[in-house]
Amino acid sequence: MLRKQAVTTTKMLGAAVALTLGSALPLHAADSSDPIIIPIHNWNSQIVMSNVVGQIFEEMGANVEYVSTDSQAVYEAVRNGDVTLELEVWEGAFGAAFNAAMEKGGIVDAGDHNAVTREDWWYPDYVAELCPGLPSWEALNGCAAMFATPETGDSGRFLGGPVDWLKHDQERVDALGMNFKVVNAGSASALWAELAAAKKRGEPIVLFNWTPNFIEAVHPGAFIEFPEHQPGCDKDPALGPNPNATYDCANPPNGYLKKAAWDGMAEKWPAAFATLQKISFTNPQIAEMAKLVDVDEFEPEEAASEWLAANEDVWKAWIQ
Ligand code: TMO
């Protein structure tokens, strides 16, 4: 409440100064007072980062609203201006949806974070002792029976992420002739709960994971090495070891992490858009954002305030 009043007072002062000085000042279009709409998805770095950036925009005097949005459909929503931006475009999971929206128009690339991403099948390190030859996918396939559960019969069980991350894991299993069945977790936290339970019992598990993430600070492990990633492997059957199938390659091992915006943002919220273009988080910063919720159990909004308080030198430079 106090804080809102302070912002309002600053805005009024700003307006009074503008009125008094009028045309003596260089003309900068002010940001619209309509809310900047920030979409929230179902993994914690994205939720905390969205709150961090939302609070930065509020600090600049803008209004902000958050909406829960499907992480694939969001590119269509950005393109149409239904949401204003997207802060975590992961190449592996969302590169295809982002590119499709770029081809249709209405969305702009607002630059990359200074981060390298990877999203793929992953195991905690004790599993390497149970299945010699890891991280090779062929070695994993040779150990498939060890990962079998009543749910998957004789096949190994791969625990995938929520379906909206659209990882095409079953297509890859089929394309590579692997003896695995994909079971999708209902949420990110279900992935981490199953990982912790398997680890406690010393049982084999192979599941979807990514970096940057809090996991690397808590559970040492490794990604499965699939046939080398090739751009277009998802569309062209000729790419990858199976000449008749798509998705027979790894996800990008050094993927980008981009920001995207509705193409009307620059005109409607010029100051916020300029800041969005400057915003760039690193792998350790993004892992820390996830950790504040997944390990330290802050609510996302509080996690964002904590992060901002600890990193003023980082973000104050973006609002000049
Ligand atoms: C998009 N994700 C980081 C969950 O792989």
Structure in words:
Strand 6, helix 7 and strand 7 form a beta-alpha-beta unit. Helix content is 41%, strand content 17%. The chain has 14 helices and ten strands. Helix 2 crosses helix 12, helix 2 crosses helix 13 and helix 12 crosses helix 13. It has two domains: 180 residues, D-Maltodextrin-Binding Protein, domain 2; 105 residues, 3-Layer(aba) Sandwich (D-Maltodextrin-Binding Protein, domain 2), CATH 3.40.190.
> Can you identify the CATH superfamily of the largest domain?
Periplasmic binding protein-like II
Task: Give the terminus-to-terminus CA distance.
Answer: 25 Å
SS-based structural class? alpha/beta
Could you name the CATH topology of the largest domain? D-Maltodextrin-Binding Protein, domain 2
Number of strands: 10
Low-confidence stretches: 1-26
The largest sheet has its strands arranged as 3-10-4
The CATH architecture category of the largest domain equals 3-Layer(aba) Sandwich
Portion of residues within helices: 40-55%
What spatial form do the alpha-carbon principal axes imply?
Answer: globular
Reading the helices and strands in chain order gives: HEHEHEHEEHHEHEHEHEEHHHHH
Q: How many helical elements? A: 14
Whole-number count of domains: 2
Residue-averaged pLDDT, rounded?
92
As a percent range, the share of strand residues is 15-25%
Largest sheet: 3 strands, antiparallel
Return Rg in Å: 22 Å
Bound molecules: trimethylamine oxide
